[in-house]
Amino acid sequence: MTSPDNSITKDNNKLWYRTPAASWIEALPVGNGRLGAMVYGGIKNEKIRLNEDTLWSGEPKDCNNHEAINWLSKARAAVFEGRHREAIEHCKKMQGAYNQSYQPFGSLHLEFDFEQDAKDYYRELDLSRAVVLTTFRVGETVFRREVFSSHPDQVIIVRLHTSKPGSLNFEAKLSSPHPNTISQENQRSIALRGLLPSHVDPNYYDSGNSPVSYFENSGMRFTGILHAKTVGGETTATNEGVISVKNADSATLIFSADSSFNGFDKSPSRQGVDPDIEALAHLHTATLRSDNQLIEDHIKDHQSLFYRSRLTLSPSRSDVETPKRIHSYTTKNDPGLVALLYDFGRYLLIASSREGTQPAHLQGIWSMDIRPPWSDNWTLNINSTMNYWPAQSTNLSECHRPILDFIKDLSITGKETAKIHYGAKGWVAHHNTDIWKQTSPVGDFGHGAPCWSQWAFGGVWHCMDLWEYYSFTLDETFLREVAYPLMRDAAEFCLDWFVPNPDGYLVVAPSSSPENTFIRPEDGGVGEVCAGSTQDTALAWDLVTNLIWSSEHLGIDKAFRETLITFREKLLPYRIGSKGQLLEWDKEYEEHEPNHRHLSHLIGFYPGRQITPDDEPELTEAVRKSLELRGDAGTGWSMAWKVCMWARLRDGNRAADLIAQQLKLARPVKIEDACETLDAGGTYPNLFGCCPPLMIDGNFGVTSGITEMLLQSHRQVNGAYEIHLLPALPEAWPEGSITGLCARGGFEIDLSWANGRLTDVSIQSIHGSPVRIRYEDTILEQKTKKAELIKPTFGS
């Protein structure tokens, strides 16, 4: 085994470092959708933080407020009459309980007995292999570790090698912050069995009671088992839960875990599954396989998704250590870093969202805190749906499916909330939810802010995911059996939830624009709810427009379709304010936070398609003005949303400038291995997006934004989707190529460019749909055949 520097290629698929991770934001993530790990790369003490996607506090329970409906008419009257302060107080009386929190499993610790200092240290995350490598030299001996989370085998693997036979000595232990017991399973295995909290308050809320509660007869159980396979030497496992490896040539550690989770509507303590069963089954299967089989199957599975789409931008400074590369980035000196950011977003989606798993939430599947930021939940007013913006366009359709299954479950609890809170048909979801699919407005029965708790469009917005899946795949069975029924029921709620305003337009009252506020005209205080936010109307328009088309396409529900058409005609239209901006609320109020992070009123432009530059130029200009007034600064996910917006505005240079701002190295303030930052936004040394702290939607959002800069397909003309090639190519990317992008209507596209001009494009028609192909001012209309490959040409 040679010195690390002589055997490692630092290509643009890799994040690489010269020192171990000092904190979470420097550790490197691996995941198989269900099991996640953050690898620190320590020398004498390696720490690998572990997660399993069903580990949540709490149990299923009725979180609805059964008195809420008694306050609805009072809140509605107050907003219509301009009594905004009273409306806030009425809305607080409509809140339910806070939801529960995602929980860590704990950590795997490896302790080594090196007597000399390490030299030639190097660690990397290879995105193309989904493997974290750590290597260094002690004396003349080179030590090498590889960590990966295998989807085929459903285990986490740690492989340890040394260049000198018999020189591998270490102890391995499992730990957890939760009540647990640790035991020896056999001579090579240890197990940790634990209990999760029955209740956890959000990290931002002080109820006056203990924020974390454990009860023996309540809460989820979990099991983790660690097994050691070795070549040479001696291996023993003790009753104290320590695996000792002495004088080995190599070792492979296999970690398997599971929980008692048995569905969102079943108690994990009384109706749960035995977590030992699956944990032991996965472990047993993996132990029967060779090291080479384990890693080869893992890489094959990962690359079957990862290599579907590749972005190349030149030049690329891949020979520069990743933190230094981020720190020195400008739009022109390292376009390759943008390609790495694109690949990293796709990597994270593959690692955190696979068929049959829970969908990715605020931190994907990686979390180390019992009270994680914002409960590490599914925040429905932007974050959870942003996680899936790149799924279809970057050719990861299978990774989209967990959120689609999630929506089906959410609709079940959402029907109860719609009935109890509002006396409405259909289903509703609000600001936050958890693994128990809570759908009521959170706030602990009066302690939350209505500007976020009262927003009732989490279900309607997530119907966009249903439509996106169909519009890219044209899966007719999915449309008929899954998407249409869910969208129809969400529309039923809208029909009951919207009411006429004094001018006869249909609006939501009380309504909020997520998390944003205005100055109350009556007393100068902060206003949170109004009579008809722009976002509510835009989301309803999108939903009913998709339903109207689907109803006609499927040949069903004619009477309901006509009801929806009438409803859509009565929706409050967009209005433009005195500054040329799109109005956010029912009136032009003075803004409390003019630079607010949310862009809720612009949702009809992105991710929606109601407003386009070609079809609505005046409204498009109002969108542009709104973005200019908001400013570029913001949280990581907010900047990512703005990248998408400016790409839709076909301003590639502005989008590239925003990516550069997002790639600013976040300045950390280390607190017990967690990390806050001195500034909002930016990128951590491990390329995670900074909110702060980590919120993974920023990574997914910017990947989607990069895609929108290179290809757009949201516009339809005469039944054909328009594939717009290089609609927002910035000057900073004069040459490059991308393969495997997907377009609505069922198309897959490869394209390349040089000197800022399109040089080659291939479009495969998956289903034989008609298409409009656009480059600059040239539009080609073409009928296609199933599986046909199109090679359009454009003038020089």
Q: Care to describe what's here?
A:
- Residues 15-262 form the Glycosyl hydrolase family 95 N-terminal domain.
- Pfam families: Glyco_hyd_65N_2, Glyco_hydro_95_C, Glyco_hydro_95_cat.
- It comes from Rubellicoccus peritrichatus.
- This protein has 796 residues and is an alpha+beta fold.
- The chain folds into three domains: 4-57 and 105-203 and 210-306, putative glycoside hydrolase family protein from bacillus halodurans (Beta-galactosidase, Chain A, domain 5); 62-96 and 388-598, Glycosyltransferase, CATH 1.50.10.10; 721-790, Immunoglobulin-like (Sandwich).
- It is 30% helix and 24% strand.
- The chain has 19 helices and 36 strands.
- Strands 1-6-7-8-9-18-15-12-11 form a nine-stranded antiparallel β-sheet.
- β11 (180-186) and β12 form a beta hairpin.
- α10 (397-422) runs antiparallel to α12 (458-473).
- The longest helix has 26 residues, at 397-422.
- The two termini are 53 Å apart.
Largest sheet: 9 strands, antiparallel
Number of strands: 36
Count of all domains:
3
CATH superfamily membership of the largest domain: putative glycoside hydrolase family protein from bacillus halodurans
Regions with pLDDT < 50 over 5+ consecutive residues?
Answer: none
- Helix and strand content put the structural class at alpha+beta
Radius of gyration: 27 Å
CATH fold assignment of the largest domain: Beta-galactosidase, Chain A, domain 5
Helical percent range?
A: 25-40%
Q: Reading side by side through the largest sheet, how are the strands ordered?
A: 1-6-7-8-9-18-15-12-11
The dominant shape is globular
Based on the structure, what is the oligomeric state of the protein chains? single chain
Q: Kindly report how far apart the N and C termini lie.
A: 53 Å
CATH hierarchy: architecture of the largest domain: Distorted Sandwich
How much is the average pLDDT? 95
Strand content: 15-25%
Q: How many H/I helices?
A: 19
Domain Glycosyl hydrolase family 95 N-terminal: 15-262
Pfam families: Glyco_hyd_65N_2, Glyco_hydro_95_C, Glyco_hydro_95_cat
InterPro entries: 6-hairpin_glycosidase_sf (IPR008928), 6hp_glycosidase-like_sf (IPR012341), AFCA-like_C (IPR049053), Alpha-L-fucosidase (IPR016518), GH95_cat (IPR054363), GH95_N_dom (IPR027414)
GO molecular function: alpha-L-fucosidase activity
